[in-house]
Amino acid sequence: MSSRHTIVNPDALAKPTGFSHAVVAGRTIYLAGQTAQRSDGTIAGETMAQQYDQAAANVVTALRAAGGEPSQLVSMQIFVTDIDEYLRSRKEIGEAYRRHFGNQYPAMALLEVRRLFDPAAKVELMAIAVTA
Q1: pTM, full prediction
Q2: Which residue of 12, 96, 117, 119 sits 20 to 30 Å from the alpha carbon of 41, by its own alpha carbon?
């Protein structure tokens, strides 16, 4: 029985345990939730905007390793632990978004959660892309 999907775990990201950074199924790339985790597993940045910037960079790393580009994103969910901090940081977060993803916006949702898997994480991005 052959697999109909491919698992992608780029070396530039922290080693995944219990999940995969990206799964390619046909033309669709499913990207795991990315926090501001550095390759050594620690969280980069103290503020929501700093963490968003690193999380976005991690999404792009996983996406490109799976053969996709930011312009191919079709869906993104943003999970934050403090929606008020996110709203206060909109300008810096918007700059980070455009730096990593450009000026195209996929279908998106912003959700406030009590906490993320790593207690130091303030933001997690989860996305789906469809390649040409």
Answers
A1: 0.94
A2: 96
Q: How far apart are CA 66 and CA 46, in angstroms?
A: 29
Rg (CA), the chain: 14
For residue 52, which amino acid is it? Y
- 6-130, what's its fold? 60s Ribosomal Protein L30; Chain: A; (3.30.1330)
Among candidates 120, 5, 102, which has minimal Cα distance to 59? 102
Q: What is the DSSP letter of 46?
A: S
Q: Distance between CA atoms of 78 and 124, rounded to whole angstroms? A: 6
Between CA 76 and CA 53 the distance in angstroms is 15
Sheet holding 28-34, edge to edge: 6-8, 22-25, 28-34, 123-130, 73-80, 107-112
Q: What integer pLDDT is reported at residue 1 of this predicted model?
A: 44
pLDDT at 115: 97
The closest alpha carbon to 130, from 34, 32, 33, 24, belongs to: 24
Please determine, for residue 2, whether its predicted confidence score (pLDDT) is greater than 70: no
CA atoms within 13 A on the CB side of 48: 19
